[in-house]
Structures are given as C-alpha cells and as structure tokens.
Specification:
heterotrimer, A alpha/beta, B mainly alpha, C mainly alpha, A: 9 helices, about 35% helix, about 25% strand, B: mainly alpha, ABC transporter involved in vitamin B12 uptake, BtuC, about 70% helix
C-alpha cells in the first residue's frame, strides 16, 4: 500500500520544552492509524503540525507527495484533509442542512468564488449531496433545525457529516469521543466503523483505549514527544515500553 | 421569475408597491413631501448595504460614513466637471467608494471583533479630518463643496450644448429635474434595485458563506473556505451601496460637506440597521424609515404644539408634561433616538423585525393553542 | 530645541487627559469585560460638574445700592453671591478657586452616577456580545449628551482658572534658553501634576489594598477569581464607580483648558479608545504610557516644520499609529498575549 501521509524528523520546541522529538510517522492509504499517548505526550502538537496551525522547527510533512508545511488551513482542506475537533465545531446559527451544504460548496466551488448571483436553491447537486450525507449519519429528520440546539453526540455526527461530504483523502479525528457519555461514545464508534466502509484514511488521536482498539489498524505510541512504539493494536497491548510510558510515564 | 423563490418574489412585489405608494402611505403621518421621501429611499439604500456586511458577517463597521462622504464628493465633482446628469455622477460615486472601501477593508479586515470596529473608526476619522484640512482643494473644507456658475461641465456644454444661464443648475436626468417627486422616484427605483440585489445575495451560496463567517470562522477555514476575500467582497459591496447613497444625496441636493463623514453619521446607519433588525432583508429599510421619519416629525414639534396636545390635563400637570416631553422633541429629538436605541438593544436585540416575528408567533400559538387544546390537555 | 521642548510640554497635559480616560476604559474592560462607549460622556459630565459648581457658587441675591447709581440715574442693583455674604473672604476664595473646589462635588456625583449606571444597565450586559455592549453604551452616551445639552445649551461655557494659575511659567529660563521662548500656561502644569497624582493614586490603590489585589487578579483571570467565592458583583460596581470618578475628575480639571460643551465627550472617547488599543487592551500601564505618548506625538506633529513635510499629519497621527499598531502588534504596546487578539 502507498503512503498517504509521511512525517519525517519533525521537531518542535516551545521555550525550552521539547514538545516533539524527531517524530517519524507513515500513514498508509486506506488505514485507520491511531496516535495514542499519555497527557502532554505531544499528540495535539503533532496534529497541529498537519493542519497548518503550527510550523515544526525542522522536519517535513508530506501529504500525497506535497508538503503541508507553510500553507493555510483552507489550503490544507482543499488538498483533501478534513478535520474533526475535540469539541465539535459547527455553524451553530445555521440549520443542519446549511451546515452540510457549506463544505459541499467548498468542495465544488473552491476556496473562494463570488457566486452571489446564483440561488442556493438552484444548486440541485449540492442539495442532493448534503441530503444523502445527512441520511448516512442519521440526522436527515432534523435537517431544518438549528444546529446549536443539538445534543453533543449529534453535534459530533453533524461535524463528521460536514467532513465526509467533502470525500476527503484523509480524515483527522482529534479525540472524537472526548466528553461523551458511554452510549454516545459507542454510537460514535459505530458511525466511524460504518464510515470505514468508504475506505477513507483516518488518523485518530485518542487516549480512550476502548475506542482505539475497536477502530485502529495500526497504533503509534507517543511519549514525551517521541514515537516509542508502533504496531498493530495487539502488538501494542503487549508492549512493555507502552505500559511503562502509561504507568510510569511521569518519571524520567 | 427573476430567479427568486415564490416567497421572495412576493416580498419584492410588496416592497415595490409600498415604495411606489410611499407618498400615499406617508400622507396620514404628514411625511408626504418629496424631501423626506428622498431621504427614506437614500438612507434605505445605505442601511441595506451596511446590513450586507454587519447583518451577514457580523463585522461591525463604525466607518461607513466615510464611503457616504466619498460618494457625495464624487457626485458633486462629476456635476462640476462633466454633466448635471445624475447617471454618470452615481456611477462614479459607486466606483470611487468601491475603490476606497477596498483599500480600507483590506487593512481593517486583518483584525476582527472590536479591533475591526476601531480600525474602521480610525480610518473614517482620518478621512474626516483630512477632508477638513489638507484636502480642502478637493473638499472645500468647512464650507463644503458646491456648484458654481463657472464650473466647466464640459460634457453638457461641449457635447449637448446645454446652457444653464445665470442660475445655478440642478441635476437633471435628460431634462427631468431631480428635485421633488421625480428625484424621489429616481431614488426609489434605485432602492428597489438595491433591495433586489440584496435578496439575491442573501439567497446565494456566497451569502450563506457570509452567514457562516459570523457563526464560526474557525470551522469555515478548516472547511476549505478562504474567509478573507469573502469578507472583503462583502465590505466592498456595502461600501459601494454607501457610495451610491452618498451620490444620491448630492443628486437631490448638490452639495457635499465633511460632516457627512463624521463618526456620528456612521453610528446612525448602525442604529438604523439594529433598530429595523440586523440580518433581515426588510429590517434596515424599516429602520432607516423610522429614524428619518422620527427625525423629521419630532424636530417639528415645539412647546406650543405640545401644550395643545396636553390641553385636557389640569394646568400644573400640563406644564409638567410639556416640559418633560419637550426634552424629547424639537432640538432634543436625538434624546429620543438614543433612548429608543437603548431600549431596542436591551429588550429587542433583533429589532422591529424580531418584534413583528414575536407578535406573529404569539398569534399563531394562540390559534394553535385553541385547536390543540383537546388533543394535548397536558400542555 | 526650545520648540521641541515647548511641544513636548504641550503634549503632556493632553496626554494626561487621554491617560485618565483610557485608564478608566481599561479598568472597566479588564475587570468587567465591557466595552464602554459612554466613557467619554462621563468625562463630559465631570466637566459639567465644574460648570454647575461655578453656577452654585455664583448664586446671588440682589441688593439696592445706597450710594451707586447706574447710568440712567436709578439706584444700582448689586448682586452679592451667597457664599461671599456667608463666608466673607473664604467665599471669595471659593469662587476664585471654583474649578478645583468642584472636585468636592464631582467625586460623590460621579461615584453615584457610576454605581447607578452599573447597577441599572451595565451589569445586564456582562454576558452579551461586545457588539451589543458597544451599541447600548453608544445609545447611553447619546442620552447623557442630549440631557446635558438641554440643561446647559449647545455652546461651550468657559471656566476661568484661579488667578494664581492664570499666567505663564517660563521654563526656558530655568533651562538656559532666552526668556520667553518656552512659555507654558501654569494651569497646564497644574493639570499635568493633577493627572499624574490621580494615576498614582489609582495604581497604589490597586497595588496596596486587598480590594485592588482582587481587581488585579480579576483582570488576569476573571473565571478563577469568580470560583474563589469572592463577591465579584459588588467589586465590579465599585470598579465602575472608580472609573467614572477618574473620568469625571479628568473632565473637571480640563475645563480651563477646553471650555466644556455637550459633545466634548465623544471627541475624547474616540481618541481614548485609540489610546487603549495602542497601549494594549487590558493593560493599565499601557493605557497611561500610550496616553502620554500619543498626546506628545500629536503635539510634535502640529509643529510647522513637520506639517510642511507631511501636510495634515497632525490631524491623523493618532489614528495612523493605531492602524500601524493594530496591524503589526495587535496586542498593543504592553498588552498581554491572547487578550482579544
């Protein structure tokens, strides 16, 4: 299988603190790759390097043969990377249907286009695509509701729909079940499994082991800014270094 | 038709009828003279444009009066140099205000929130101060820019061979003078066009993205949308609307002064938009009408009219009421404006349109309430 | 050189006024999180405290002179202010020093106004968006302004400084320049010293009292202080009252420099906001530093030498600086990172 995302020798220092220490990572096309690690291991820092929010001090981040460094979030999205946030980021003042149509327009019409003279209602292609994805995540009945009034679990569903409607090559999931009840977590896992059938490559940042082991094909363990282990979920479960990182991670 | 949904088509049709019948509708209020009707239309255009920026993107500009001023100056210069025809005047006004707003918008939109408001305010105050001082050759400083007998008007004189004689000319559209009712209908036609454009923008994918800017700009960036050109375009469009309004002010009354650019004038268009209903199609026009109408009406009142009004009261009470109400009318109508504005922001942030909606909901609920009473007694 | 010194001095008193208004704005923004567009109106109200005080002190009764006649030959009607009738020479002094005496009136009045505004209006806007705060205080400013206009009229009302502070101080002589090259009105020096002492008082209040400590902690991290179980609401009221008093006092003492009229507040408000932004939103030291800095810069750019190089620069310098600061260093000169960037 081809490598979709290739991270080579990434370093990042904040003040005197080494947040990322020579991180190397290869994400295979079509795989579900989990990045786990104790708090403060550098997971979020690493993710922010993929999406244009942080620039690493050294190293390269290549996506499908192109560098992701030094370009803006919307350009990264246009290149085919969609992102789910820890707390769902949606357009709370708009309806669910509009929430999904906007990413669809971003996909069909690009990052900027003055399409002020056409009517939204005239764009049948966008309507159909948005409706289909709302069906898939089970929110079609609420399509005309304001999204601000949704439950946390439903907001997450909507956010996933907003990503999926763009058919991204890579989907970044930053703790997709953080702050959720057990039931909502299981629902989200089921939904992510269902999405898995589409064959979209995913990176999941997570510390909930239950989520990781039910979804991931491959797991990378990050501790103190360094990748200390990599392998299938089963290999990781038995790895002594991982257990040490989690249990004794605070000791030098 | 016109590429509008049925609902919007009805809205536009109703709007056209209301505007065309403006003189009749305003008769009971005593506001049926052309001067004030022109003001309704012109400030309606100004507020519609402002709403495209503030109502959709949430960016609160405190400097839009600068574009109004630029529009006025440009129109007067067009009269002086080229022709008394209003068409080139407003075309130049719109273009120049557009260029000016592109410049200011490009810089100001690098920041958001209250910093954006202060940047626009700073630019507008700079323009105002410069118009008063260094730019006097262009703006004629404190006196304001006026037409003169000796103006070249070369298009009129050289091409059309018009001679205005000894009197100062007034703006005229192919022979129809732009004062009085013809002036109103000229402004009204443009108001309708501007309203139509605003409906189209609101219903377009472009407008939907602008609404998303005010909702969650971060998400929008990660959704693959480059927000800055969108907000800049909205800023320029609203600047062009302001330029058109400024140009029309000069068309109906050919002079331009710097006070039109002062920040209180920017505040006024904010008031109009909020009072009517931010982000609604009809609200800004209503707000402009209410404020300009109240200004015309309240500033007419004086103590003797009030004394007549409170005639039914005992004398001491009558005096008390006259002196209290006297604060709010005549010279003091700004007090009414400020107080009304506070009340709206405190109790009805959605403006008049929100009030209309609430009343509408109250009625529909009552209707439904009586219908559902049998089926849902628990509620 | 002497020109530069003169312009420097001229900038200081204006800078003092900017600094005092900006200080209150920042205090309110930092602790209450409210953008107060009515702060200029409070400055103006302070100025009209001085007008009122002078009016009160001048209230007279009429007596018919036994000896003097007017030009028609009728007995002359003489007005004797009550304070002179009651207190004699002390009364004379009170009228003479009506501007500084007004401080006694301005402190309780401005405190009451501030507390009433906070309790009656501002506190309902803590959790509402900044845009709505701007709009409601903008409406409030119009209301205050129009009420003052209906009471005092639209024309500026000059307030004389006390005779003792009426003349010029020749700074040039002290520094070895020829006499008369650096004349500086005495009252402006008084104003500068006054504003410095008010600034000093506010800072030491914040630095050395428990109350001030809580306020500073609140500016640094509002949520945490709220969690400590400290009654924030009451303190907010007092902070707003203090800010109102500071703005009011700035207004009282400014009246001999600029005759007050009803819209002076708006003119100063716009500039003070720019000052706050340049200094850094939420930074008290920044507000003071930027106030003086911009006052001095404005003064320098009004020199003919500068104006001939950059025509009109004195009119726009403050705004120009604000634009540059906002673009290259959005947090302002001394603002903390992350505050409303």
């Amino acid at each position: 299988m081809a490598t979709l995302l290739d991270v080579q020798g990434v370093n990042k220092t904040f003040g005197g603190l080494k947040a990322l220490d020579d991180v190397n990572l290869k994400v295979e096309e079509g795989s579900v790759h989990a990045i786990i690690g104790p708090n403060g291991a550098g997971k979020s820092t690493l993710l922010n390097c993929f999406v244009g929010r942080l620039k690493p001090d050294t190293g390269t981040v290549m996506f499908a043969g192109k560098s992701l460094l030094g370009i803006l979030p919307h350009q990264i999205n246009q290149a085919g990377v969609a992102r789910v946030f820890q707390t769902p980021e949606i357009f709370a003042d708009l309806t669910l249907h509009e929430n999904v149509m906007i990413p669809t327009f971003a996909k069909t019409d690009g990052a900027f286009r003055i399409n002020a003279w056409q009517a939204v209602s005239g764009r049948k292609d966008v309507h159909e695509r948005a409706d289909a994805i709302l069906q898939d995540v089970g929110l079609y009945e609420k399509r005309n509701d304001h999204s601000g009034s949704l439950s946390r679990g439903d907001k997450r569903r909507l956010e996933l729909a907003m990503c999926l409607v763009q058919d991204p090559k890579l989907l970044l999931l930053d703790e997709p079940t953080a702050g959720m009840s057990r039931a909502d977590t299981n629902n989200t896992i089921d939904l992510l499994k269902k999405i898995g059938e589409r064959g979209i490559t995913k990176i999941i940042i997570e510390h909930d082991m239950h989520v990781v082991f039910s979804l991931a094909d491959k797991v990378s363990v990050l501790a103190r800014g360094h990748v200390i282990a990599e392998g299938s979920p089963d290999e990781i479960k038995g790895d002594a270094r991982v257990q040490e990182a989690y249990l004794g991670g605070t000791h030098p | 038709m016109l590429n509008l949904a049925r609902k919007d088509l009805l809205l536009l049709a109703g709007f056209i009828i209301a505007v065309a019948a403006g003189p009749v509708i305003m008769t009971p209020l005593g506001l049926d003279y052309p001067d004030i009707l022109q003001k309704f239309a012109i400030f309606g255009i100004f507020a519609i444009g402002f709403n495209i920026l503030f109502g959709l993107t949430g960016y609160l500009s405190f400097g839009h009066a600068a574009f109004l001023g630029v529009g006025s100056y440009t129109a007067v210069w067009s009269f002086k140099l080229f022709s008394m025809n209003p068409l080139p005047a407003i075309i130049f006004s719109v273009i120049l205000a557009g260029l000016f707003s592109a410049l200011i918008g490009f810089v100001s939109l690098r920041r958001s929130g209250i910093y954006f408001s202060i940047l626009t305010l700073a630019f507008a105050q700079m323009s105002y101060n410069l118009a008063y001082s260094v730019l006097t050759p262009i703006t004629n400083g404190e006196t304001g820019l006026q037409l003169e007998q000796a103006d070249p008007r070369w298009l009129d004189t050289a091409v059309f061979g018009l001679d205005y004689g000894a009197a100062l000319p007034s703006s005229s559209l192919f022979g129809v003078s732009m004062t009085g009712y013809p002036g109103f209908y000229f402004c009204a036609a443009l108001l309708v066009i501007c309203f139509y454009i605003s409906i189209r923008i609101f219903r377009s994918p472009f407008g939907m993205v602008l609404k998303a800017v005010s909702s969650n700009q971060n998400r929008l960036n990660y959704t693959g949308i480059n927000t800055r050109p969108y907000t800049l375009t909205a800023f320029i469009i609203s600047g062009m609307y302001a330029g058109l309004a400024g140009g029309l002010l000069a068309v109906t009354d050919p002079l331009a002064g710097a006070e039109r650019m002062q920040w209180t004038a920017s505040g006024e268009v904010v008031l109009m938009t909020i009072l009517g209903g931010t982000g609604t199609l009809l609200g800004p026009v209503l707000g402009a009408g209410i404020i300009k109408g109240a200004e015309a009406k309240l500033s007419q009142y004086n103590d003797s009219i009030l004394t007549g009004f409170y005639d039914f009261l005992p004398e001491t009470l009558q005096h008390a009421m006259v002196s209290i109400s006297g604060l709010f009318v005549g010279e003091g109508w700004h007090l009414t404006l400020g107080a009304a504005f506070m009340l709206v922001v405190i109790f009805l942030p959605g403006g008049v349109m929100e009030g209309v909606r609430r009343i509408g909901r109250l009625f529909s609920k009552r209707k439904r309430g009586s219908g559902d009473a049998a089926s849902q007694p628990a509620e | 050189m002497d020109d530069l010194l003169l312009q420097f001095l001229n900038g200081l008193d204006k800078g003092g006024a900017y600094a005092l208004i900006a200080l209150g704005l920042t205090l309110i923004f930092g602790t209450l999180g409210v953008v107060n567009f009515a702060h200029g109106a409070l400055f103006m109200l302070g100025a009209f405290c001085a007008v009122t005080m002078r009016f009160l002190l001048g209230t007279s009764f009429d007596t018919i002179s036994a000896t003097k006649k007017d030009f028609l030959g009728n007995p002359l009607v003489e007005e004797t202010p009550y304070v002179i009738h009651w207190f004699g020479n002390v009364g004379h002094a009170m009228i003479e020093y009506s501007v500084p005496v007004s401080i006694l009136l301005a402190i309780p009045v401005m405190l009451l106004i501030g507390i009433a505004l906070e309790r009656g209006l501002i506190r309902f806007f803590y959790k509402r968006p900044h845009a709505e705060q701007i709009l409601v205080t903008f409406g409030l400013a119009i209301v205050i302004q129009e009420l003052v206009k209906s009471q005092f009229g639209a024309n500026p009302i000059p307030q004389p400084p006390p005779d003792a502070a009426r003349g010029m101080i020749d700074f040039g002589v002290m520094l070895g320049f020829a006499p008369g090259t650096v004349p500086y009105p005495t009252w402006r020096l008084v104003y500068l010293l006054f504003s410095l002492s008010i600034i000093g008082a506010v800072f030491s209040f914040l630095q050395f009292t428990t109350f001030g400590m809580v306020v500073r902690a609140g500016m640094a991290d509002r949520e945490t202080v709220g969690l400590l179980g400290i009654n924030i609401g009451k303190r907010f009221t007092i902070v707003f009252g203090i800010a109102a008093v500071v703005a009011g006092l700035a207004g009282v003492m400014y009246t001999p420099i600029l005759p007050p009229d009803y819209h002076m507040g708006m003119d100063f408000l716009v500039l003070s906001f720019v000052v706050v932004v340049v200094g850094g939103m939420g930074s008290l030291g920044g507000a003071v530093a930027a106030g003086f800095l911009l006052g001095i810069l404005q003064s320098f750019t009004s020199m003919n030498e500068v104006k001939s190089l950059f025509p009109g620069i004195d009119q726009i310098i403050i705004y120009l600086i604000a634009v540059v600061i906002l673009l290259v260093r959005p947090r302002g000169l001394m603002g903390r990172k992350g505050v409303m960037e």
